[in-house]
Amino acid sequence: MAPLVLKASFKGLFFMTSCTLIFLKITFFFVTFIPSTTNMMMHDHDHDHHFDMKPPYDQSQEISSPDHISTHHEHDEVLRVLHEEKPPSVADDRLGMPPGNDSNGGPEILQVVMKNSSQEVVHDDGHMSARGSTTSKVKPLNNREVYHDKDIFLENYKEMNRSLKIYIYPHAKNDPFANVLLPENSASPGGNYASESYFKIALSMSHFVTQDPSEADLFFLPFSIASMRHDKRIGVGGIQDFIKDYISTISKKYPFWNRTGGADHFYVACHSIGRTAMEKAPEVRINAIQVVCSSSYFLAGYTAHKDASIPQIWPRPGVRPSRHPSKREMLAFYAGAMNSRVRESLVRTWINDTEIGVHQKRLKTPYSESLLGSKFCLHAKGFEVNTARIGDAIYYGCVPVVLADHYDLPFADILNWRSFAVIVLTEDIAYLKTILKKSVDSNEYLKLQKNVIKVQKHFQWHSKPVDFDTFYMVMYELWLRRNTIRIL
């Protein structure tokens, strides 16, 4: 009996020892391994990151099987870097704080930059080299350059002009919905949503269009959401069904949509209703490239870096007006309808200020004098993050101040917005005057304003496209998003 008890005791001891060892191993795993993988997944904020442009398409990558197609375009995430700045502990009026504001916190300024981790190498000495791009030069990072990398942009821009091909789904002039599917007859569209019409007109007459779908990099879905709104046969309530039926039609009539699930297709829309237009055609929202004005990271229908932001620009023919910075006497200007909490907060905070001119409704007089007479022009989100105010500010040489969190700024893959705009978190509206006056006092404003003049050409439509204008910038954004594997 004794040996049996002893044997059972040894078994129990062995079992307890084994369990203890297993527990210690699991504990060691969670203590050491898990934090290290978390660190691996975190962004390195010790350096500024800039987006490195995608290299030209390599014909050697062509394959003939659709089974290997990925609907992910060669584009990485946006890195939003928050720089915290605490105001000095002096009286509110010296801080530029509005009367009666007691806030103790400092402003966090939202900076938007781009990163492509597969092509960019940032070295310990703060220099960047491009891996797999069209150039291998090593350059110091410069936050005041208008372009993330001008040499790469120009080289890729040249390649885009040479090689990019777009196939537009054809429709006859006698099509019952020709008004929705064909470019406008007018060479000079107007209104807030003119960007959509200008793009269709410009693309239809450009050298990018091909009649041979086998050589196309991208396929254009030519429906106009703005036109559907005004068509009594469709209207706002019928847009979703129209798009669903349109996708069904082209997928049955042509093979191009089905072979990639729409990943090499795109459409353009500037009206905010465009973000709900794809509810009954989710494959468009998920796979296709959406070139839209409503480009917020937190809109259900927008996917940052698959989709692209297009600026809302009023057409303005004639000579662009200008005014020297020293003649711009007002610190900042804003006027607009009170259709968001951001705008309400802005007006409530600064309505009585003598240097920041804010108005709680649209002006009855032309905006041009206020835009020309101000150093900074405020873009405060309304129903959507997008408005024409950024385009207005740039046109009149006024430094844009963006008060719209999570806004995928137009042409952010190309342009370094920090070099010509001030981007402020909406929660820091109370610190606005401090931020802007600091920029003026340090002469930073003069550098920003000089760069605004440099980027003006990128924010203008022409009846016939001109190199580097808005049309060509949108085409470059599309070129970056083209599939790197072409289906034959």
From TrEMBL:
Record's bilayer topology term: Single-pass type II membrane protein
Top-level lineage group: Eukaryota
Localization, UniProt: Golgi apparatus membrane
The keyword S-adenosyl-L-methionine belongs to this UniProt entry's keyword annotation: no
Keywords on record: Glycosyltransferase, Golgi apparatus, Membrane, Signal-anchor, Transferase, Transmembrane, Transmembrane helix
UniProt-listed Pfam families: Exostosin_GT47 (PF03016)
Nucleotidyltransferase as UniProt keyword: no
GO molecular function, one term: glycosyltransferase activity
Coiled coil ranges: none
Primary location: Golgi
Start and end residues of each Exostosin GT47 domain: 161-438
GO cellular component: Golgi membrane
Transmembrane region(s): 12-34
PANTHER family in alphabetical order: EXOSTOSIN GT47 DOMAIN-CONTAINING PROTEIN, EXOSTOSIN HEPARAN SULFATE GLYCOSYLTRANSFERASE -RELATED
Family: Belongs to the glycosyltransferase 47 family.
Record's protein name: Exostosin-like protein
